[in-house]
Amino acid sequence: MSQAATVTIGEPQSRLVTPFNVVAALILAIGIPVIVIRFTMGLGACTNLSDTTAWGLWIGFDVLVGVALAAGGYVTSCAVYVFGMKAYHPIVRPAVLTGFLGYTLVAIGLLFDIGRPWRLPYPFVMSQGWTSVMFEVAACVGLYLTVLFLEFLPVPFEWLRWKKLRKFFIELTIPLTILGVILSTLHQSSLGALFIITPGKLHPLWYTPYLGILFFVSSIVAGLSMVIFESGLSHRVFSSRLDPDHPVDHDALTLGLTKAAALVLYAYFGMKVMALAHGNHWDLLNTGYGAWFLVELIGFVALPCTLFARAYRQRDARLARFTAGLTAIGIVLNRLNVSIIAFNWQLPAQERYVPHWMEIAVTITLITVGVLAFRWIVERMPVLAEHSDYKAGH
Amino acid sequence: MSISRRQFLGGVSAAGIAALHASEGSASEDFTGNPDRYGVLVDLSLCIGCRTCEAACYEENKDRDTNRKANNERKNNLPPPEVPFDDLSVTHTKRRTSSRTFTVVNRYQAKDATGQQRDVYRKIQCFHCNEPACASACLVGAFSKTKEGAVVYNPEYCIGCRYCITACPFYIPTYEYDKAFTPRVMKCTFCSHRTSAGLPPACVEACPYGVMTFGKRKELLELANEKIVSHPDRYVHHIYGEKEVGGTSWLYLSPVPFEELGFSTNLVTFPLPELTHGALSVVPMVILLWPTVLGGLFMLNRRKEQIAEDERRAAVEAAVSKAVAETEVKGEVKLSSALKKAEKDKEQAVKKAVEEAKKAQPEVEAK
Amino acid sequence: MNTLHEFMRHAAPIEYALALAFLVGFWAFWWLLVQGEDR
């Protein structure tokens, strides 16, 4: 990333005009007017959604991919606080921050997508659709966003030196972590389960009653990969924020995560093949969609699995980070396949959905806001290193 | 066009075999829901695509409050058609329902049982399923199935997530994407304000050719079977909607294979909401198991760490006390030897002093 | 597409076979991974 070479980051950026900031400003300059259009002129004015395809990029990417890639929060805090793997403590805070920002952006993206955003609380306060998988998604995502926020609160409290409040929330860590794992299991799987009610509309190679379990297991993979990938990135971009007195063997941690990622990816691959067997549509592998399914399965599940294994055995953290990026792309591909590409697959080409450029603009804007918020917080608050008040005891 | 109960029952008793067959079939379908709910049987062999039903639907919904409560938003307010209803050429394009139209009639061209190529028209509207996917999918319960059989949408709760549209196997519900502040899901209401009074929907009543028959669903199934039995060459031997996705209120008979008319023929024969029961039943299990397992793991870990800590502390203490003990012993040895030496030194010093005193003594005695 | 009506059927022998194969493979995979570790 050329940014690390041309930009020095020490204290929060004194230089406002950097290549990254200019690009970010451009993105916002395009995205914010589009957001205004969405709210003043309706979805029809800025999306290619139709009566036949009601869910597009904002659901398929902003919500489905966003939730999957923000899964590092529950995976790492579970590993450290429940399984007792204390060595990984340094990566919990960045992972929880990513989770918190990720889910916040998912919520914002959802507010853009639904027809009446001000009615978002309705399922909780007005009327409950208990038979709806979507209801469960809404409840669990809403609660989990709260959990992530509470898990993150010690960080700004340390920054503000509000010690009593900080202590109070630190003591909630274990129950919050367990609650977070429960809620994540439920909503990660339910996002996949949303499509179980659409057997005729989702291509048989992707449609399976196991969609829920597949989404859950792949969310673990997504979380691990994102932690590997962005901690590598953070260490380069924010290297001055690290604590020189408490050096962390970053590569060792990366390789530990790599081992976990390899094993879980293996399990995921096995589950995908078993789902394939359960569906019994082997003949469809010989079609265009079949080839695309194999691209996802072999290129973005089997291949990363072997690459992670290789990286681990050869202690190659760089390969691990590359593979993590590849895996993340695979998660994106899987979510887009289930929600957009393999969905409504039988429709004639002219009726198929393609995102409007304005939908893409809003999505990129949300990602940019997320990155900017991440940077702002990491440059000021004790995320990558312990606060000086608390360095003695972890 | 609806028929009187007496007329219908007269017809049924005349076709004894059909009645037997029908009662077998209807028994399995009516195990849920109101057994006397209504339906509509659409005989596509009769439809000539005059679009009178479309016009009637518009007239019925253009400014009428067709839902149970009086509320401005409840008025469907269908806008006037872009193409007038007497323009029959639009049936040549494959239209679908839209936020402006609850029902459309499309033309298809297919070969019937005698091998004859003919125009066949299909009226498309909400099927009002026995167990609708849309209602099951709605996270705010904005859909309900009336006891007359209508599946009705309530815009008061809808948040616009459009899961209902995604779930519907027939691609029926539509959305008002052009509205920024009050977009609604739009679909046929089965004229629930009429059917709740036992009256047929506007489209059924308006049809000049008796294509549609309004009546109790179970009786319509019998009628449909009777039609097939009496005119086996006129119809494909299938009642579309009898079993599809668990059964629908709107039933179809066709002179040509259904797939030629754009009907989905790969639908499951059980209600789609049954598919989500598995996913939802996992929820209480996870809520029970995860805290137990994870909490248990956490406790086990903490215990393990505690034991390790205790062992470590015990080892440290043992080492320390051993060292202290050794130091003490050494110290004692040193101390006693130091004391002994001190004693000896003292004795020596005393001896020396005594001797010196004795030396001094004889000088005094010599004087 | 007409096999859709079968999709709620019970697990076929091939699924059990695959499950066993992947289970065995999992432990083999784990063993492969830990080979390089210095203990």
What's the short version?
The complex is a heterotrimer of chains A (394), B (367) and C (39). Chain A is mostly helical and 394 residues long. Chain A contains 15 helices and no strands.
Notes on the structure:
The complex is a heterotrimer of chains A (394), B (367) and C (39). Chain A is an all-alpha fold. Chain A folds into 2 domains: 18-47; 48-349 and 370-385, Formate dehydrogenase/DMSO reductase domain (Formate dehydrogenase/DMSO reductase fold). Chain A has 15 helices and no strands. The radius of gyration of chain A is 21 Å and the shape is globular. Residues 1-10 of chain A have low confidence and may be disordered. By secondary structure, chain B is an alpha+beta fold. Chain B has 9 helices and 9 strands. Chain B has helices at residues 5-14, 16-29, 52-61, 133-137, 163-167, 192-195, 202-206, 217-230, 274-366, and strands at 38-43, 104-111, 117-124, 143-145, 151-153, 174-175, 185-186, 212-216, 250-253. In chain B, the strands form 4 sheets. In chain B, strands 8-1-9 form a 3-stranded mixed β-sheet. In chain B, strands 2-3 form a two-stranded antiparallel ribbon. A two-stranded antiparallel sheet of chain B has the order 4-5. In chain B, helix 2 packs across helix 8 (217-230). Residues 5-31 and 66-72 of chain B have low confidence and may be disordered. Chain C is mainly α and 39 residues long. The radius of gyration of chain C is 17 Å and the shape is rod-shaped. Chains in contact: A-B, A-C, B-C. The interface between B and C is small, with 5 and 5 residues.
Which key features would you list for this structure?
heterotrimer; A: about 400 residues; mainly alpha; Formate dehydrogenase/DMSO reductase fold; 2 domains; about 0% strand; disordered N terminus; B: about 375 residues; alpha+beta; Alpha-Beta Plaits; two-stranded antiparallel sheet; 9 helices; rod-shaped
Give the low-confidence spans of chain B: 5-31, 66-72
Shape of chain A: globular
Q: What general form of chain B does the structure show?
A: rod-shaped
Q: Of all protein chain pairs, which has the greatest interface, and how many residues does each chain bring to it? A: A-B, 59 and 61 residues
Kindly provide the radius of gyration of chain A, computed on alpha-carbon positions and rounded to a whole number of angstroms. Answer: 21 Å
The percent range for strand residues of chain A is under 5%
Q: Helix count of chain A, per DSSP? A: 15
Oligomer: heterotrimer
Number of domains of chain A: 2
How many strands in all of chain B? 9
CATH architecture of the largest domain in chain A: Up-down Bundle
Query: The CATH topology of the largest domain in chain A, please?
Result: Formate dehydrogenase/DMSO reductase fold
Whole-number mean pLDDT of chain B? 87
From the helix content, strand content and strand pairing of chain A, which structural class follows? mainly alpha
What number of structural domains do the residues of chain B give?
A: 2
Number of strands of chain A: 0
Helix/strand-derived category of chain B reads alpha+beta
CATH topology of the largest domain in chain B: Alpha-Beta Plaits
Compute the number of helices of chain B: 9
- Strand residue content of chain B: 5-15%
